[in-house]
Every structure is written in structure tokens, then in C-alpha cells.
## 1
Amino acid sequence: MTVEIQTDRLTEYIKSSRKTYEAKLQEFVDVPSVSMDPAHEKDIKLMAEKAAEILKSFGASAEIIQTKGKPVVIGEFKSDPNHPTVTVYNHIDVQPADPEEWKSHPFKMKIDGDKYLGRGTTDDKGPALSVLYAAKYAFDNKFPINIKFLWETEEEIGSPNFHDFLEKNKDKVAAQSVVVSDTVWISKDLPAISYGLRGMQAFLVTLQTAGKDLHSGEVGGLARNPITELAGLIAECVDAKTGKIKIPGFYDNVPVATKEDIDDFIKSGFNLEEFASSRDMHTMRTDDVRDACARVWTEPTFEVHGITGGYTGPGVKTIIPHKAEAKISMRLVPGQDPEKVSEMFLKFVAEKCPDAKVEVKGSLKPYLGTREGIFCDAAREAFQLAFDKDVAFVREGGSIGAVVSMQEVLDIPIMFLGLSLPEHGYHAINENFDWGQASSGIKLFVHYFKLLSEIKK
Amino acid sequence: MTVEIQTDRLTEYIKSSRKTYEAKLQEFVDVPSVSMDPAHEKDIKLMAEKAAEILKSFGASAEIIQTKGKPVVIGEFKSDPNHPTVTVYNHIDVQPADPEEWKSHPFKMKIDGDKYLGRGTTDDKGPALSVLYAAKYAFDNKFPINIKFLWETEEEIGSPNFHDFLEKNKDKVAAQSVVVSDTVWISKDLPAISYGLRGMQAFLVTLQTAGKDLHSGEVGGLARNPITELAGLIAECVDAKTGKIKIPGFYDNVPVATKEDIDDFIKSGFNLEEFASSRDMHTMRTDDVRDACARVWTEPTFEVHGITGGYTGPGVKTIIPHKAEAKISMRLVPGQDPEKVSEMFLKFVAEKCPDAKVEVKGSLKPYLGTREGIFCDAAREAFQLAFDKDVAFVREGGSIGAVVSMQEVLDIPIMFLGLSLPEHGYHAINENFDWGQASSGIKLFVHYFKLLSEIKK
């Protein structure tokens, strides 16, 4: 049993959906569902309710399942148990955003022509809605497929309870494959599918040396300065210029990218100039394109995201801070284990700065999938039909903890059909999405669902 | 011509002054005369007006002199041109203070028994008022001495226009000696006079690598991280554990403290345990008392006061900051020249991190006076009479740029008769002063003025 897609009908559906799509996206974005900040707990709850509401209003079933942490929203467009089933993964929590730094308010979505400005527009509420609109079309037009939804609210904090949720609700989300729409293309002219993700291990390193800030004239020379010491520790961990990590054992089991890997990345159209300019990067660690894509897709990192403590107002206030905290994370590549990396780091800090306290934060395993097989073929064809372009198979430098959990618990193929562009500003200020990607995204998923419906269970 | 001090009369004067002293201090402290913050420009002006007002209301002359920066308030209790003259230096600007960090509002002085809580209570508004009350007593009781006031409003930003002011107004502030009341005792049981000050050179080091914060998953490994690079630069400048500065040439002309210097410091009663506990220092670079006092009084430092840029909210937000600024200053000792040190630092940064921008900020020369001579003898005697204790001659780890200017322009002896205690929290949160030091301070200066009146012009 197969269906045919009537091009005119689909075009008309997408066109006529624009108004409600924008209204729904606005409703979603205006809820500041910041999972990182406990102050937004009630917004997460509200977001889950709104998500369940929209699923129901579209004709799907919907259920909010409480985890040990924040809720997961599941739902389904059911056709027939004998039809194939796909599970769609998205997340409806977002990164924090400081309204003072944005051109428009991050939690009051602004529509500027084709452009949607606001936190979560591209990561990941906009793509989630595109898939939903596609699924509704498939359902209304009786595609012989069951489409399940799996909308998480802890992705931005590393999905700490998702693994447990999956184990407890395995049946409810069971399918032949998963499709994830939460990745970024290499450039706006080149659709890309990631088949590998870096993992991550985050830490908070705190050093306190006094009960209050001190006067650097009075005590300077004798007092320990926690910011200066953390700077020293960081410099012992990483060569900031090359990015080379100096923690003993860190590179054990890290495979070096082969000539073939990099040839593939280059063939996919990775363009260093465009990569940099679309992200407003002024200067980089390398100008060599082969080195560059190997760095973001196949190499681990050590980053300091911020150092708190000390004076941050105008001018120089000559205090010696009493306490400082370095916010650190490392991206890990397939072959590395976050637990082992944590052990190495804890040991290293204990040696170099014994009274620094290390809090082990979010942990995500790296992921490596495949670029071959029937699901990859379906995705290739869907991209061709929706965007009239060959899709490239690349890797993703970021981490989606949920993906590793789905791989471990569900043990089914996972495909990444992303809609975000580099210029959308993932995790950055002035995050945005656009109707071009949203509408072509609906088309992409209609075709993908149709092709999946033809894959025998 | 000499006067005798009638003990009962002075005691009664001090006792009866308490109410107005507290009211005046409150009035002074409640003006947030933060010289570092341009937003407080009008408070500096108001503070100068209030200072001139009180001088006049006490019977002194008063004048507000506009400099190229903020004003200086001068005044005088004139007795006779043939009498000796002393110039009293204080400053009436203050450090910034964040009300959220304080137990009580920093700019709404709270009186808690004998204790006065608020920004500027001990640094330097409280001591300024004690000297003023003493001077009024000397004037009302016809001490044969002229007492001039020199109240500055740019001390906390390194007195950038004070040198120029002195050159233009040399006659108005001419005297046989200067007395400065803006230093901290070694401990509350031990009056101390500083005869040396460290200098200072501050810098802002900025590194920008992109136009906006980036996602560490997307670009990590390729992107330069300005916080990590500044941490690396800092580690190349200083060994945070030992405090040893690694900039080539930095220790040229830095005299090593002699056994005699340190013997004197120790004899003065410098107590490391008390030094640390009164400042709530939990851990230090040394536990050796001789090493400790040499470090704060005779050795240069390199401190990082804060690093801005990056994420500072709760948890870990995995951005790569696009820009970071390190707020740095070095304390310098006699023998070092801030200009030469700046040159060394600029050269070093240009080599190690060529695209970092260095802004040279406040600069103060180190100062070295004497522990011998008639003015020192007068101070010793005044301390004995006011506090019934031997005063110790030590050094000061901090910097008072105005002192170097006075030494250069006025070329007369400068004495430091401080009233602040370590537990008063100079530059720290919950800064305070107390009636004990304020009242004994009045007594101290009455005796000192009396003794100065006996020193022939």
C-alpha cells in the first residue's frame, strides 16, 4: 500500500499553514522554557501543556509523562498497527537568553518578513513545528504510517532523565526508526545529515581562598588569588593557542581522522570562509580547511565558558577575589568515555590545585551512526525532492545526549534531518528561524514520511 | 609660644562631639561619591559642596577648586602667618559598592552601637572628620598653628589630576609638613605609621575573536576562546602559586628586603595569624611570618581582579565567548617605575598574544619616606598620648598616588597618621568604622597639632 504526493495539494497546504504556523511558533517561543534555570520550572510545565494541547488540536493523541526531572511529551498520529512506525524526536526547552543583549526580546517572538526572531525559534521549536505540520499532512492524507512524537524538555541540560524515561516507556515510543530534527546544516546552500555527534563532559571548578574580597594593596603578594590560580590551572589543562589538551591520558582511544574521513567532509562542501563568516568568527585556530573540519567534527575540545568571581564593572577595582568559579566543558569524540575523562580531570585538578572543588556536571556520550542503509536512502531522496539538492553526510560537533540514550535503549536506526542554518545562531543572541526553512522542512518531512511508509516493517 | 592641653576639657569636647560627628559622617557616607563610576559625577560634586559647607560651619575658610577632572576641596583654620603650618590630606571619594552584597545599604549609613557601617566610613570619610574635629579644637583653643585641608575626590581612581592641581595651587597648600590620614594599622592593638607605599600600574587586556558568542559544539576546536587564551596569557605572566612574575625585566631594580627590614617589621608586632583572621583569609601563599610581611610590604605583585566575557549564570552554558577582558594590576615597590613596567608588559603581551588589546589604566609611583626626624618624633609622642601605645613604623602595601605627587611638588615631609583597622574592611563589603578609633583619632590629632605647633618654622 502506497500513497502518491500531489504536489499542488502539498504546496497549497504549506502556503495555507503559514499563518497558524507562525502563531503557534510565537506561542511556543513566548514561553521561556529555559531548562537550565530553576526559576523557569513553571514555564517548562506550561510549555509541556501547550505541546500536548497542539498535538491534540491537530488530531494526534498526547500525554505528558513526568520523569524524575522535567516532563516528556509524547503523542501519536495512529493509522494502523500493521503500518510502519517512526518516532520523531524534538526538544521544547531552550537555552537562557539575556533580553538586554538582544535586538528584540528573546521571549517575545518578532516576525520580520520571512524571519522569526526569538530564543528557541531554530533550536528547536521551529523545526519541531515543521515536522508536526508534515505529520498532520501525512495523517490527514492517510499515509500508511504511524508517527510518534517524543518532545523532551531537558535537552539543553544534557537530558539527565531521558535514558530512565525511555527504559520505563520503551513500548510507548517503540518504532522502526527515529528521526531527529535538531541539527544545523553546513551552509545555507547545502543540506546536511549528521551521522556522528561529539559527546560532552562539563565541570564547575571552584576555588575559595578567603571569606570576602580583599584589597590588593593590603594583602597582595601574600593572598592567594583564585582567579589567577584558576587561570594557571586552565593553562595547565589546555594550550589555548593550539587547543591541544594536556591532561594525561586524554587522547587515549581518540582516533585520528583519516584522509578518507576528511576527503568526505571536504567533498560535502565544507567551506571555511563561509563557515566563519556566517558565524561572525574573526579569527580561528587554523586557516586550513582540512584541519578546520577535522577540528570541529572529529577532535575533542577543552573550553572555558566563563570565570565568575572578581570585579566585572567598569574600570579596574583592585580587589583580590575571595572565590572564583570556572565553567568548563570538554567535547568528546567516539572512542572517549565521559566517565573516564571525568576521572582523569578530577585526578589532574587534585594534583595541580588540591583545594579546588570540582563539581561534575552534564555528561553526554559521543555517538556514531551510519551513512548507509534504507533510512539513509530515504533521507537522501526526501532532501532531493524538498530542496532539489544532494544531501551531504557529515558529522556534528555538538552533542545530543538523548540520541545516545535512544541508541542504547531503543536500538533502532536514528536519522538526523535538521532544518537549522548556521546564520540562525544556535545558542547565540538574536537566534532566529525563517519561513524558507520551515516551509521546505514541512515538504521534506512529508516526503520522508511517505518514503518510510514504503519500508516494510 | 606653646599651649597646654587640658585633659578634662579635651575629653569633654570629644564626648560632646559624638552626636554631631555621627550626623556629619552619616551625611558624608550617604553621598555615593564613587569616583570610578561616571554615573556618580553629580554625587562627587555634591560631596565637595558638603565638604566645603562643613569646613565653613566649623569656622574654617573653604574653597572648591575645579581640576581637569574632579574637584579638590581646600580650607584653612588660620591663626597667624608666623605660626607653623600643616596640611592635612584626606579623600572624600569612595570605592564602588553593590547594595545587594551588603548586610546594610552601603550608602545609607547604619549606626550599630559604636560601629558605623557604610561605604567610605573608614576609607576615608571617618578619618577625615576625626582630623577636622581635632583641628577645630586646636583652632578654638588657639593653638599657635595654621591647619590647612586638602580633600581630594579622585583618590580611588589614582589621583590622575592631583599632580597638576598641586602645581597650579602650590601656594594655597604650602606648609612645613603634610599629614595623611588614610592608612590601616597592622592590628587593632598596634598603632602603626607607614613610611613606604607600593605603587601600582593597572591594565585592561581585551581579546575579541568573534562578533558574537558561539556554540562550543558547532565551532569548538576551531574557534579561538578568548577566556582560555587570556588564562594562558595570565599564566605566562605570573606563577599563581608563588606569585612570582615572569615578565622579563620585571624584577630589575627591585631591592630584596634585608634581614634588618624584616626584623623591624616583625618587631612591630606583625602577626600573621591575626593578619589573616581579621581579613577572613582562609589560606595564603606562605605560612612564614617573615616571608609574609616581606610579601605585602616590599614585593611587587601581579593580580587579576576579574575576567569578563562568557557565561556567568547558574550551571554551564556551553558557549565560546566572543570577547573577554582581564582586569589586571601590579603593585610596584620603590625602585620600580610604572612607565617602564608598562612598556615591559605591553611588549610581553604583544609577543605572547599579538591581537590582545592592552589599555594602560591608573598608574601610581611607589613611595618611600623616612622613619626618623622631628615629625616622626611628634607622631610617636602623639600616639603615645592618645592610645598609650608605642607606634610602629612599617610599610603599606597599598598605593596613594597623591602622596607621590605631594612629595614631588611640595617637597616637604609627609607623615601617615592612620586610624583604620584591618577589620574595618577597606574596599570590601560591609566597610565600617567605629567611635573608638574616631574618638581616639580626634585625641591623636589634637596632640599632634599641639606638638607641630612647637616645631619652629
## 2
Amino acid sequence: MTVSIPERYTDLLGREKKAFAYLALVRSDGSPQVTPIWFDFDGAHFIFNTARGRVKDRIMHRHPKVAFVITDPDNPYRYMQVNGQIEDETEEGAADMIRSLNVKYHGNPNYNIPPGQVRVTYKVLAERISTM
Amino acid sequence: MTVSIPERYTDLLGREKKAFAYLALVRSDGSPQVTPIWFDFDGAHFIFNTARGRVKDRIMHRHPKVAFVITDPDNPYRYMQVNGQIEDETEEGAADMIRSLNVKYHGNPNYNIPPGQVRVTYKVLAERISTM
């Protein structure tokens, strides 16, 4: 089951807007966690990228349910709330993906990946979207 | 156990900054939920206010662990991540509290509480704070 993006809010997903996602996850002890994170949208999936072994990675690897808010940086009262399911997790192309996100947010592809760090890309399908 | 606010970030809690909290909660089915919410800080507690019966209220009433991010509206790369425990839940003074929050965010106390709506205030003690 997927849902479509309300048309009046698609600008929040565009590369010009540079909006952040506030990604909520559930730790293994049942307590919540939330972090701002870069994202991209490929027309179907919300795409997140993190480093292998970080808390976000460990939780998402284990627990496929996520929720996030994407707020208009120009208006905090305008936002999209998404509940979704991780559909894909891959290291393939993940280093290129973080460079591509660096282009979106900082305008250049020179994202420094420390030696030994492995990047991982998570693709999320929205199951419920509400907008404000 | 409580923790202190890093001094360089106390401006995020001030009334001038008008920052939002992105509040993450865990639903009864174990999936995460996140919403932008107004907050205040009384020097010890983070204060949230919602309407009795809303999803946020039902979760917080049942599950005292919360997490939230407070981001500088002027710089999305500057934020405070808080994990906390609800220490108090009360309807007493809660209508005045939402009016006070309306003063903080909109500069006036005329917050419209629909007939029959009961407000509730949650006070959270921070257990872990990290800053970026």
C-alpha cells in the first residue's frame, strides 16, 4: 500500500527547498528517537542515507517502520507528516547518494567520507501522509 | 536523573527564538510518530500542551518516554536532541498554558479553545541532551 503526495506540498520534496526530515525511530528498549536528516525523493521513495553502524542504521536495519515530518524551512506551520515502511536497504551506490545529497543541501559533491566508513541508503514507501 | 542545558544552546529555549520541538512518540503498535509542537521551558521542565484525547495525549498518558529535537529556526544545522521522561501531566492551568504559548508564538493570548475541548499540560525532564 502506498499513498500519493498531495500536489500542493510537492515543493517540500524538491531540491530547491532544502527541507530536512525529522526522522523518528523506535529503539530496542521501546523509547523513541528523533533526528534531523537529509533526504531525497525519487518520485516514489523517500531516500535516507547514513553510515553503517550508527544508531539510525542499527534501528532501521532491524525495524522497518519509520515516521518523519518534513517542514517548509520558510514556514514552520506548513509541513508533511509521513508514516512509512522501509522497502530497500543497500550499500550499493550509497557513497554516490550522500554526495548527491551534499549537492542538494550544500551545492557541491565533495562530501567527506572518512576512511573505513560504509554508507547505506534506505528507501521508504509512504503508507500514510497528512499535511498541515 | 536530570541533565543541564548546554549554555551555548539556551537561546533555542527562549521565547524570542520561537523554535518548535519535533516530538517523537511510540504508538501502542510499536511504530513511531512525530509532530511539530509548541513548547516552553520553565528552567527545569520542557512543557508541552495538547488537547485531551488527541493521539499525542493518548500516547503520552500511557508511555512516559519521549524524544524531541529543537532546531534553531535560523540555522537547521544547529539543534538540540533531547530524550526525556514525563514527570507531570495536568489539566490544571492548561488552558492558561496554551494561551501563554500563543503569546510566545503569535504574540497574543487569544487562543481559541473550542467548546468542550480540555487542554492538558505535560512536563518533561530531560534525561539526555546532545547538541549539534
